[in-house]
Amino acid sequence: MSSALKAGIVGLPNAGKSTLFNALTASSVPAEGYPFTTIDPNIGVVEVPDPRLDRLFALIRPPHSVPAVEEFVDIAGLVAGAHRGEGLGNRFLSHIREVQALVHVVRCFDDANVAHPSGSVDPTRDVATVETELLLADLETVEKRLDRVERTARSGDRAARAEADLLRRVKCAVEEGRAARDMDFEQADVAPIRHLSLLTQKKVMYVANIGELDLPSGGERVAELRSHVDPSPVVIIASELEAQLRGLPAQERDEYMAAVGLEDSGVDRLLRATYDLLGLVTFFTFNEKEVRAWTLRRGALAPEAAGVVHSDFRDRFIRAETVAFRDLDRVGSLKGVRDEGLIRMEGRDYVVQDGDILLFRTQP
Predict the structure, then answer these.
(1) Are the CB atoms for 18 and 42 separated by under 8 Å?
(2) How many Cα atoms sit within 13 Å of 206 on the Cβ side?
(3) What are the phi and psi torsion angles at 222 (to 5°)?
(4) Where on the phi/psi map is residue 115: left (φ > 0), alpha (ψ -120 to 50), or beta?
(5) pTM over 0.90
(6) Using an 8 Å Cβ cutoff, are 211 and 189 in contact?
(7) Backbone φ and ψ of 318, nearest 5°
(8) Where are the alpha helices (DSSP H) in 217-324?
(9) Helix (H, G, I), strand (E, B) or coil at 308
(10) pLDDT in tens, 11-51
(11) Can you tell me the distance from the alpha carbon of 219 to that of 209, in angstroms, rounded to the nearest whole number?
(12) 3-class DSSP state for residue 226?
């Protein structure tokens, strides 16, 4: 498998996090309607569906195809007071620090059999509850670091004084309710801020978890959620339905989705949205054994892509033989793209594009 991005599924208890995790991973973890079903996080590796990989496999016909993957962590529900340890909050918050992005599941469905920790469904309030806990946890982190740095700064250490000034600015912003991801940092500030592993610095997207009867648009609650979290992305998913669909044969699943007005599955839309959130692209490689999809940050150069394939390839990189997927798809054969002169020789300064098919040439 190629290296996976890691996203944490967060939200209040009974928002549908574990049900979404089941749908993503086609696994079976407890999803009962009471708080703290999930205490230790469930972790699942999900293959990213990509029709381009299927097309390449059909054209090249190696023995195997290997998709890109995403890793999802089902983190137990946060509650008010989590930053103080309420509801086992400290353990849950520590799990969030380990992921690259947050998938915040927000309950937008009614179900008398599934208790809501606040007694009613209110997406805007629920988002605010979780965001407040993350901000308070970050405030505690910043204050602890600031206390240590100020002591060093008093001795005349210039670097400590600069960091203390930065931490005071961050502390004021967090106290005002601003997430770290929304703050503008100078280049010199990036490293010390990254070292703090602030929870609100992680990129976030929202899943509006709706009932099947509210498909496909989700109704007023989803509209309220979109307005409240704008410009953050919102993906509408009926998690309970998605979990059931994963167990159906492909044709039956497609027919049911069409009947309820879905052009594609919510799971697929979520997977694509996480790529967009983190600014990722997919490139492909092939040999006599396999065709494989790899994940890379948008804007990365060819040597970095080579290093994703094999750690030694980055330093030993010479060039990358490159063809765009759209060209191979149109022409229909490797011989054809070669005959038409569509294979390019790209050097160290080449910015890899989404859908590139790469063959790396390296020093021995």
Answers:
(1) yes
(2) 26
(3) -70, -40
(4) beta
(5) no
(6) no
(7) -110, -55
(8) 220-229, 239-245, 250-259, 266-278, 302-309, 311-315
(9) helix
(10) 998 999 989 998 988 744 444 443 333 345 678 888 888 99
(11) 11
(12) helix
- β-strand partners of 291: 65, 286
* Token pair recorded at residue 162: 């600069």
At 156-208, the pLDDT tens digits run: 899 999 999 999 999 999 999 999 999 988 888 888 898 898 999 999 999 99
Six-digit token string for 23? 């749908």
Per the structure block, which two tokens stand in for 325? 């997927």
CB burial of 174-208 (b: ≥16 within 10 Å; e: otherwise) equals beeeebbeebebeeebeebbeebebbbbbebbbbb
* Run of H or E residues at 204: strand 203-209
Q: Token digits for 131?
A: 């965001």
DSSP 301: B
Q: What's the CA angle centered on 176, arms 226 and 79, to 5 degrees?
A: 60
Is the pLDDT at 116 greater than 80? The verdict is yes
Q: Which residues sit opposite 73 in a β-bridge?
A: 8, 43
What are the angstrom distances between the C-alpha of 346 and each of 283, 301, 324, 351?
Answer: 14, 10, 12, 9
The span from the CA of 220 to the CA of 208, in Å, is 11
Burial of residue 243 (number of CB atoms within 10 Å: 0-12, 13-18, 19+): buried
Measured CA to CA, the distance from residue 125 to residue 141 in angstroms comes to: 24
Structure tokens belonging to residue 77: 């529900």
Query: Residue 269: phi, psi to the nearest 5?
Result: -65, -35
As given in the structure block, the two tokens for residue 35 are 């708080």
Whole-number Å distance between alpha carbons of 334 and 89:
54
CA distance 312 to 307: 6
- 206/210 Cα distance (integer angstroms): 12
Q: For residues 200 and 173, give the distance between their C-alpha atoms in angstroms, rounded to a whole number.
A: 12
Q: How many CB atoms lie within 10 A of CB 287?
A: 10
